[in-house]
Amino acid sequence: MTQTRRTFLKTGTALMGAGAFLGATGGPALAATRLTGVSYLPPSYRALSFGSAGFVERLNASDAVDVDYYDSGKLLKADEQLAALRAGTIDFMFHTTSYITRSVPILGITGLPGVIEALYENPDRLRKGSPLFDLINEELAREDLYMVSMMGNVLEPEYLWSSAGAPIRSIADVKGKKVRVVSFEGTKVVEGFGGAAVRLPSSELYLGLQRGTVDAAVANISTIIGRSLQEQLHHVYRLPITGFGIGLFVTPQRWEKMGDEVRAAFETAADWFDANGAKEANEVIYRDDYWPAIEAAGIEVTDPTGEDLAALDAAAEEVRAAWIADVGEETGHRAIALATGQAG
């Protein structure tokens, strides 16, 4: 049954209260195999939706599962997904980590400056079953969450993209600029460099750049291409400010209540997502399609100097210290050591 966002928000809680939702009680087998999942990302984000679409296709191919899946925020907006998952009104969600690091601090490891490149260049460190993956899940359990996969790795780092009227070609150019940024970690870096951080949904970024609401954006190349922002931008400064991955999340309770066949089908699809999600984006779509499109659009590309990379490292120390204070000394230091290859 296809639901609308309006009817879902009206009836979801009532269904849970009636014990009729997704096999929460010992209901009919058909009800127990229906899994509702969401993502706020639209198909135009081809690199980001490749993995989630492939997962859903494979899960739905199983005889054990009937998937009711909504992308593009059709059922729930980005800011509504986490609460709905915890409430049990959806079964699984795909979510970019950058949007929820304030609610789920351990996921900040995927966006820490000075750490993000080490993860990006070493995919095995976030694979299912890796020490870092398991540590993240230990902490997520305290948040009533279980991450089935992080698409196998983080995505290419987020860089500074700027307009013709306010070009950013160095850290010094950030001062006084209005910069769209989503993650807490990226916000701290931008503000430390003298910029004014503006939280703006990607759906509003095109007009934001066009009207001068923002001068620049910290963004992954998927956001640029997915929202046609190359039409409003003229420069990219490839300083790795922050980053993110896309997690596949359920709750521990829902995971345990899945039947053996359903869980096996979910794991099989998640294994494919883990092996192919980030790999396809980073090694194929970005390299072969997106960066050539940026070049064809005439966007000037500037790589950071050694001096600016050193300045980013210095700024990163403060951001990492704040994050460690959030997640706890032992957990924070352990996660960073695993992410940077200093522990196994």
Automatic annotation (TrEMBL):
The primary location reported for this protein is: periplasm
A GO BP entry is:
transmembrane transport
Gene3D superfamilies documented for this protein:
Bacterial extracellular solute-binding protein, family 7
The record lists the lineage as: Bacteria, Pseudomonadati, Pseudomonadota, Alphaproteobacteria, Rhodobacterales
Descriptive protein name: TRAP-type C4-dicarboxylate transport system substrate-binding protein
Q: Which family does it belong to?
A: Belongs to the bacterial solute-binding protein 7 family.
User: Which keywords does this Swiss-Prot/TrEMBL entry list?
Assistant: Periplasm, Signal, Transport
Q: What Pfam family does this protein match (any one)?
A: DctP
